[in-house]
Amino acid sequence: MILIGTMNLTRTRDTGQFYCPTCGEMQDYRLRSRRPFLTLYFIPVVPVGAAEMFVDCRGCRDKWDVSVLEMNQQQHEQVQLEQFHDEAFRATLLVVLADGTISEREIDALQSISGHLFGRRIDREELGEMCSIAQQNRIRAKNYVLTVSRRWNTAQRRTALQAMFLAATAEGTMGQHQTRLMTEMRDILEMTDREYQDAIDAALEWENL
């Protein structure tokens, strides 16, 4: 019986230091290539695909696209900040959509919140597209925040909660469903009752709202 299969062969192409976004500091890295091979009796004999290059951090062991080597600390931090703002706004949008409807007051609140996060008010067309995507994919606010908040720092968790609270109270008060959802957000973001209340009090002072 002839045994034929495939396997990936990984080799180190270069080493050096880079700014690791996960570690938040300079770390040693290995530039590695991974390529699939056809095997005969478990021996790689023929390459069956192109080599994939990636950066392996020796500190956290995370793997990155090679473009990570072209960015300095400041550029990485800017990209991460922009990513957070996008995630925080999407979480806020999902809180509004949790009851299946969106009102004019909520639209206005979302546009104001976008001004605070992005430095510009998102237009209605772009907001509508984001709503459609969220509804079509049936993304739940709780599940989304549970996933993305793992990489948020303390200040970012506070900012995201403030944005979600302001959207949830766009109509003046929160209903039972929204109150429960915000309580879940407090727990997901690992805030104490005092931290939660302080964040809400500060949210009311946002200049754009």
UniProtKB/TrEMBL annotation:
<dbReference type="Pfam" id="PF05099">
    <property type="entry name" value="TerB"/>
</dbReference>
<feature type="domain" description="Co-chaperone DjlA N-terminal">
    <location>
        <begin position="92"/>
        <end position="199"/>
    </location>
</feature>
<dbReference type="InterPro" id="IPR031493">
    <property type="entry name" value="Zinc_ribbon_15"/>
</dbReference>
<protein>
    <submittedName>
        <fullName>Zinc-ribbon domain-containing protein</fullName>
    </submittedName>
</protein>
<dbReference type="InterPro" id="IPR007791">
    <property type="entry name" value="DjlA_N"/>
</dbReference>
<dbReference type="Pfam" id="PF17032">
    <property type="entry name" value="Zn_ribbon_15"/>
</dbReference>
<feature type="domain" description="Zinc-ribbon 15">
    <location>
        <begin position="19"/>
        <end position="63"/>
    </location>
</feature>
<dbReference type="InterPro" id="IPR029024">
    <property type="entry name" value="TerB-like"/>
</dbReference>
